[in-house]
TrEMBL record:
Cofactor (UniProt): FAD
Binding site for D-dopa: 227, 282, 312
Name of this chain's protein: FAD dependent oxidoreductase domain-containing protein
Family indicated by similarity: Belongs to the DAMOX/DASOX family.
Record's subcellular location: Peroxisome matrix
Keyword annotations of the record: FAD, Flavoprotein, Oxidoreductase, Signal
PANTHER family membership: D-AMINO ACID OXIDASE, D-ASPARTATE OXIDASE
UniProt keyword Oxidoreductase, yes or no: yes
Signal peptide boundaries: 1-18
Spans through the membrane: none
Amino acid sequence: MAPRIVILGAGINGLSSAVCVQQACPLAQVQLVAEHFSPDTTGDGSAGFWAPHLMSDKSADMVKRVSAVTYEHLVKLAYSPLAGLLKIQMLSGYCLYSKPADSSEEVPTWFEILESYRNLTEKEMLRFPKENNGVFYTTVTVDVTAYMAWLMKRFKELGGTIRQARIEKIEEIAGDCDILINCSALSSRYLFNDKEIKPVRGQVWKIRAPWIKHFYIFDDHVLEHPYILPGVDFVTVGGNAQEGSWKTQPDPDEARRIWDKAVERLPPLQYATPLRSWAGLRPWRENPRLESDTIDVQGRNIKVIHNYGHGGSGVTMHWGCALEVTAMVLETLGTDQEQIKLLVSRL
Ligand SMILES: Cc1cc2nc3c(=O)[nH]c(=O)nc-3n(C[C@H](O)[C@H](O)[C@H](O)COP(=O)(O)OP(=O)(O)OC[C@H]3O[C@@H](n4cnc5c(N)ncnc54)[C@H](O)[C@@H]3O)c2cc1C
């Protein structure tokens, strides 16, 4: 009988896992179950900017490993004929610091993944009289809604099915599957009794400012620092990070504060056209959970593969995580290691 695989959660992590698993296991029946689909997931409101952000040092190696795979995947798409459809582009810009560089501060190791990264010259710093030092690098950015529409089309063409439902207890779906892939992000708190996952609320502006062609990130070591991240159709301006807040509505006072701080650091923003303000919950966990487990559901052992807790870096990490999920699924189905390597390398 064809293996039955249910993926719970259709955010960027659930959807990319669904595509990879269905492609690597064409005979499996893969169903994506979720309460919300794009354009109503967290990634849809994110900036779609590749850079590990708001992650614990404890998970640095894992974050770097999966982020490197995702970077390669997105850059390949940025140089492919699909770039326009998916609204993926290479983007260069500035990380600026108002205080003098502390020689004890280490450069994050994920900078090694990038193709270009350098300190700003004295001449460049003259453009930023309020800042003290900075770096310039090139990364990749994606319009997550356009990208997720393409992933969803791919999933359906591969034979995957979808079901819209809010799941209150894991028993509601576990009985229907041989493998359950958990990408339910913050709901893992009650569905899997995981008290380590918590929300870190973020609020941003989406604005029209086509003259902004670089990204600007100010004092990124400070929690509520300003950032300006242009995409293809609009610019995302942030931001804040409110640990433990479950509020998904944007707050008008917060919006004004975010705007004023960003304009103060980057005056050319002044005459931009605001489009909307948006708030979302980063599913934060000190160690993002990417592992398999077995749970007992009404006397039946169910294999569960967890893929959640990506915090402020879910877009940055998604493809690397989806490939590791796929390898775990193939292993559970008894595929040998050589074949797993081959199948995953084709995704
Ligand atoms: C302001 C802001 C800016 C950001 N910018 C970036 C950025 O530039 N780059 C970056 O890498 N990351 C960024 N992030 C982080 C990124 O958006 C998240 O890490 C990522 O979107 C999480 O994706 P996910 O698929 O794990 O979870 P989610 O998108 O939260 O999806 C969870 C899914 O599970 C489903 N679900 C949950 N509970 C249930 C249930 N009980 N029953 C049925 N379905 C359920 C939901 O309906 C949904 O489909 C940003 C986040 C915020 C808030």
